[in-house]
Amino acid sequence: MIYLDNAATTMRKPQVVVDAVVEALQSMGNASRGTSEASLVATRADYVARERLARLFGCPWADHVAFCSNSTEALNLALMGLVRPGDHVVSTDLEHNSVLRPLYRLRDERGVRLDFAGADGQGRLDYEALERLVVDGTRLVAVTHGSNVTGNMVDVRRVADVAHAHGALVVLDASQTAGAHDVDMGRLGADVVCFTGHKGLMGPQGTGGLCLAEGVDMAPLKVGGTGVKSFLETQPDEYPTRLEAGTLNSHGIAGLSAALGWLEEVGVDEVRAHEDALMRRFWAGVRDVAGVRVYGDFEQAERCAIVALNVRDYSSSAVSDELSQRWGVATRPGAHCAPRMHRALGTVEQGVVRFSFSYFNTEDEVDVAAAAVRELAA
């Protein structure tokens, strides 16, 4: 199989990730739940992972890194924990349902007012519209760093400057960029960065979390056991315990930590350069093919390693199935949990076929996929 569905999850992981998970399953107890060696092994492993994540995201304090099961949970935690009844929130048409559905829930349950900055037919954000929508009193701007449909990236610093000028917080969805792009929260101006472990970070599924900037006070989404201050009737105030109720996925976190160690050795820049080269090689092989329409802005100097396309008027699901059955090329068709983006692209009925590339893909795999698209189009 030629696996080109890395925007959904990276299937090929560094071997150190596999080894770390196996070792954790055989050696770890419950983190922060005792002083036995097994418990301490888990506690130390979790802390090492926090330190590595803090370095990666430019978070000044490791204890302001909170673990979640994925970016969906992290975004729910951030949005539900920061937005108050009657607040005004601005977001964009580039967003995934991991942002949209919590916002719609806040609208319906807390009377939150929502505005969305639109996108054009190539999925480019309308920054001027966003600047008009953010006003004094806006509570929060929720924005993705990179579209999971087109691969277009957002100028987060520009968005943050607008938001902060009006006293609004910035919640950044880094699901598609963490591990392959610079996501330094200080440089970008993000107050909260939400990430998942199983995509560009090369970790196991069931891992992820968020990083909080200084002065951001977030209410917990879940409350329960913490292993400390057990006689309190409320969740402890200290971070990260305030945001982490219940037993952590220390086995998965051990794998994520190993992936982060691997990433520190290889380098984010090296990963990005390799993935970008593969993406642009594929794009060059399909962009001028009669009957193929490619979506997204490929003039961006930096973009996610994603190419979304359609072949004539065929259903994206049918094309994706042909690619899988005839050539063994794994892609992702359909709506990609991003309904507003597809409305902007005009692909609500057809969807798109998404090719997404990883550090572990090769030029030969890219060439096979491009040739398959050309043959289907013909």
Can you tag this structure with a few keywords?
378 residues; alpha/beta; Aspartate Aminotransferase, domain 1; Aspartate Aminotransferase, domain 2; 2 domains; 12 helices
What's the quaternary structure here?
single chain
Task: Let me know the number of strands.
Answer: 12
Number of domains: 2
Instruction: Using the alpha-carbon principal axes, give the shape.
Output: globular
Produce a short descriptive summary:
The protein is of the alpha/beta class and 378 residues long. 40% of the residues lie in helices and 14% in strands. It has twelve helices and twelve strands.
Please tell me about this protein's structure.
The protein is α/β, with parallel strands linked by helices. The chain has 2 domains: 2-10 and 268-377, Aspartate Aminotransferase, domain 1 (Alpha-Beta Complex), CATH 3.90.1150; 15-266, Aspartate Aminotransferase, domain 2. It is 40% helix and 14% strand. The protein has 12 helices and 12 strands. Strands 2-8-7-6-5-3-4 form a 7-stranded mixed sheet, with helices on both faces. α4 links the parallel β3 and β4. α2 (37-57) crosses α8 (250-266) and α9 packs parallel to α12 (363-377).
Topology:
Layout lengths: L1 E2 L11 H13 L9 H21 L7 E4 L2 H12 L5 E5 L4 H14 L2 E5 L9 H7 L4 E7 L11 H10 L3 E5 L11 H4 L3 E5 L11 E5 L37 H17 L1 H19 L5 E4 L10 E6 L4 H12 L1 E2 L8 H7 L7 E4 L6 H15 L1
Parallel strand pairs: 1-11, 3-4, 3-5, 5-6, 6-7
Antiparallel strand pairs: 2-8, 7-8, 9-10, 10-12
